[in-house]
Design goal:
This protein is mainly α. The chain folds into 2 domains: 50-125; 132-203, no CATH class. Helices cover 50% and strands 8% of the residues. The protein has helices at residues 14-22, 26-36, 50-66, 73-81, 83-86, 89-98, 103-125, 138-145, 177-189, and strands at residues 149-155, 161-165, 200-203. Strand 2 (161-165), helix 9 and strand 3 form a beta-alpha-beta unit. The radius of gyration is 19 Å and the shape is globular.
Length: 208
């Protein structure tokens, strides 16, 4: 199967991609294309009712509490530092929807979200809204102007945002993963409708 995006991965030719796709069965190819274009659900999504949401939120809280304290340290701090955001039901529902209301998976994703945000933006900045105004130094501005990541003005068939990633435009000097996320990816993600958690990512693969 095709691997996910990596800033440090070796260049992949279009011929290699075609060969890998051709090696898949027709059923596998159809499954991938349908998933990419949002033509079918890969997991069952329950009808969203007020009862389901309330039940899911209660279950989510219980699953979070069951996670070891050392694993949810960043989450616990977020609840204290920015309770209006971290405890907001609409915010928590995004994680439940992303996991088809599987509370255990949603809890793990929510805790991992806060851990990753602290890892990328530091403990000093992670618990407040991050906006484009935070990317003010020359390196940040240069990364944004390179055009390596662009959010297209149209959505796919399932209403999901489409992000075009052209890694030939990335500054190869930015090798650190945190720099990659903070300078390239996050500024664009914060402009996308927050309810569109599942994004279609188009990779421009080239040898150049």
């Amino acid at each position: 199967m095709l691997k996910g995006f990596s800033s440090s991965a070796p260049r992949i030719s279009l011929e290699a991609v075609r060969a890998e796709v051709d090696a898949l069965s027709q059923q596998e190819q159809k499954y991938i294309l349908d998933d990419i274009h949002g033509r079918q659900r890969t997991t069952a999504v329950p009808a969203e009712t007020e009862e389901l949401m309330n039940k899911g939120l209660r279950a989510l809280e219980e699953c979070i509490e069951a996670i070891p304290a050392y694993d949810r340290e960043c989450y616990n701090r977020a609840v204290i530092e920015c309770p209006d955001h971290a405890s907001d039901q609409a915010f928590r529902l995004r994680f439940l929807r992303c996991e088809s209301f599987d509370a255990q998976k949603a809890a793990a994703r929510l805790v991992a979200y806060w851990r990753a945000k602290v890892d990328v933006f530091s403990i000093e900045h992670a618990f407040r809204p991050i906006t484009l105004a935070d990317f003010v130094d020359d390196n940040d501005q240069h990364a944004l102007q390179m055009g390596g990541i662009r959010c297209l003005p149209v959505k796919d068939e399932a209403g999901r945002a489409i992000i075009l990633i052209d890694r030939t435009r990335f500054d190869q000097r930015v090798e650190n993963r945190k720099s990659m996320v903070s300078r390239y990816i996050f500024p664009w993600l914060i402009q996308i409708d927050a309810h569109l958690l599942k994004l279609t990512i188009l990779l421009r693969l080239t040898n150049s």
